[in-house]
Amino acid sequence: MPIDAVTRAYLRATGAPGSRLGRAVEQVRTAASLAAWRGEFHDRPLFVGEAAVLAFADDLHRLLGLLLELPDRMFGGDLERLGDAVGVDGERSALMRRLGVAPQVTGRADVYHDGTAYQLLEVGIGSDHGGWDRSGEVPRALLRDEAFAEFAERHRLGYTHSPTVLADALREATGGEPVVALLEGPGALAEWAGTWEPLRHALRECGLRCHLGEVGDLTERGGGLYLAGDRVDVVLRCFDVDQVLGDPDAIAQYERIAKLHETGDVVLWTPLETNLFVEKGCLALLSDHERSDAFSTGERALIDRIVPWTRLLNVRSLRSDPELLDHCRERRDELILKPSATFGGHGVTAGWEVADAEWHDALRAAAEVGAIVQRRVVPREEPTLDPDISHPRPWHAVYGFYYTPAGFAGVHARVAPADRSAVIGLGSNPSVRSAGVFTTTEIS
Question: pTM for this one?
Answer without folding.
Answer: 0.96
